[in-house]
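[retry 2/3] Capsule biosynthesis protein: previous attempt timed out, resubmitting with same input.
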Amino acid sequence: MLKKLLLLQLLLMTIFSFVQAQVSSSSISQSQLSQVKVDNLSDDQIRQIVAEMKKNNIGYDQIDQYAAQKGISTTEVDKLKARIKSLNLDTELTSGSNSGKNKLSDTTGRGNNDANQLDSAYYWQDQYKKIKAKQDYDKEMRRQRIFGTELFSNKNLTFEPNLRMATPLNYKLAANDEVVINIYGYSEIEHTLRVTPDGYIFIPNLGPVYVNGLTMEEAKTRITKQLSTIYAGIKTGNTQVQVSLGNIRSIRVVLIGEVMQPGSYTLPSLATVANALYVSGGPNENGSFREISVIRNGQSVATFDLYDFLIHGDLSNNVVLQDQDIVKVNPYKLRVELTGEVKRPAIFEGKSTETLKDIIDFAGGYTDLAYKGMVKAFRVNNRNREVLNVPEDQIGSFHLQTGDKFVVDSVIARYANRVTLSGAVYHPGEYALEQDMTIADLLKKADGVLDEALLSRGVVRRLKDDYTPALLNFNVQEVLAGKQNLKLQREDSVIIFSKLAVREEYLVKIDGEVNQPGYYPYSDSMHLEDLILLAGGLKDAASLKNVEVSRRIRTDGAFDSTDIRMAITAQFDINKDLAVDPSSAFPLHPFDEVIIRRSPSYTEQADVMLDGEVVYPGSYTINTKKERLSDLIKRAGGLRPEAYAEGSVLLRRTYTNNADSALIRSKLEIFYDKLYDSTSVEKVRNAVGRNLQLLGIQLEEVMAHPGSKYDLYLEDGDILRVPKRLQTVQIFGEVYFPKKVRFDKNYTFRDYIRGAGGFSSQSLRRRSYVVYSNGEVRSTRKVLFFNRYPRVKPGAEVYVPAKKVKEGLGPAAIVGIASAMASLALVIVTIINASK
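[retry 2/3] Capsule biosynthesis protein: success.
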């Protein structure tokens, strides 16, 4: 008994050690991660690592911390992240900063408080970024709705000063300006001089002249006076002096207040306030567009209002800046929002003296669909909000309050005097409802009804007092005759139906031996011959006898249970020229179907192709229905001396209809499943897919015994190929060196296999087969315990299939088997203990 227990224990240990080895071979333990090389990991092992991270709720951005705790180097971490991305597994991992429940394992044994604090920090940092981003987005969207903001985002409008224009007379010279002096007359000379930091220009042969702070007119007067001391012609008028401005200086301007990018800017000395605002990005969401101050030497010298330019195109208050000027954008004091049916809905800045009418003018006025009778206003008071209705006569006197929101509604899409006419009338459409207007009056305005109009009934769609729909009917013929006078109401819709629209389209069908078979519109008094002509006439193979017409059964509502007919059929003979013959004319009814059959004595030529080693190869027409292969060879002059009759091949067309094709496909799939060699499967599939299929023949027997069972009848499209004598054999499949070898009549099947290196370890010898050059196939047979291989002929192809690949047991199957064996062992132990 002790021996049995020891043996059983040894068996159990062997089973569980085997299972453990199998399971551990397909996964990576935690202790092995520190020495693992990412390049050596398979894709499945990468997926297991990602699955473990998902289980522990670890995000993709926490791989660095996760890998550090597992002891993986930084280089391997980068490779791991690249592998995860290449497998598109990074999307499966949640962002670590979004997960407040991530718990990084702590190998020091101190718990995971630090990890929780780190996760919390990531979480709140991410939340702050989202809130901040949303606030910035909302702020930018609100700024974009402010009227005039687009002025500073337009790349085609920069307000750059025109440096090529004539120098303004009020322009004051300062250091670094370039002064150009032209002297002409008795003396001609030009000087280009720059103003020094002390405010002087140095004129050759004259000396310094102080020009700082002088306008161009004042500078010209002073320079001319100084030059007259050395040029006598100036006093007499024979010499003239012209003073102009060359390259201008740069100035420093400071922008402060509610601007997008406040700071100090270097601008040309001809720059204006608008130019300075543009380079700074313009007013921000709190900046005023109407109160922009220019401060010079501590004093406000100008106030710029952008609305003058935006509304009227007026830049007269766009002053030229000077060095050290300060442009201050003040916060807005009054802003209102105007939406709805106006041409430019936006947020507008107003002044205390302006009214709602001014704001509507800023918006370009009302649109064509605007309701002008009243404007809705939403206002924020000290304690609550309120809604105000501003009538049209009070818009010009309604005072604004910052934060007001005005909505201009649209006119309701409802007509006060509209009626609609549609259907079989000459002029359908919408008409104005007049006093005591009737349906007859409406039809008269539309020039009456069409010829195909249904006169027995028309309808009027009407809305009742509670706006529920109602349908009224009337007799169109009586309305036109003046016997009915139904008065119309607002929004009535009158419909006159067409007889063609309320019935199924009348068609007739013709099929068979006509040039253009198909469906054709039915017409009254249409005859059989008329339909044949519409179909392009008869084909050459058409039979003039037994033309069949099938007709639907119409019982006019009467039901007879004993009537088992499905159609009425009749057969007729027609004339070849389809001449009019009143005695034999057959009128057609709607939905009749005509079939022109093929003449039973009509036969088209059938051709076959003869190719290869015959005296006269080419195309031949079959003379009789009983012409055979031997007759064809005889007509072609017989075989050539080098012809190999035993390898001849006959290709014949395949004809399968749709009903047979499904059955054939199902049988072929069963046949494919029985083929082990993939190469053979593809060859069979390709052969079946063609319209021509190989038909095995024995031409040597045909020539030896004409008219025998081997001598097949010819069919249209047959192709007979007679090759030269073949001298090779091709070997495919599970051999060590598949190749083409020379045919030797003394070689057996195994000799050819040995010539290709012999059978491989995966070969299925008992399934080997030979395909001969004429299309015949011979397979290996089993005789007692030995394989009898087929004989090999010239041009043959030898195929050695492969064994089926047996799939090994996976980890789950191994664990299941081990569990079953353990359970069996437990039962054995129980039985042994019970037998004591």
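[retry 2/3] Capsule biosynthesis protein: Residues 418-498 form a domain with the Outer membrane lipoprotein wza fold like fold (CATH 3.10.560.10).
[retry 2/3] clearing retry counter.
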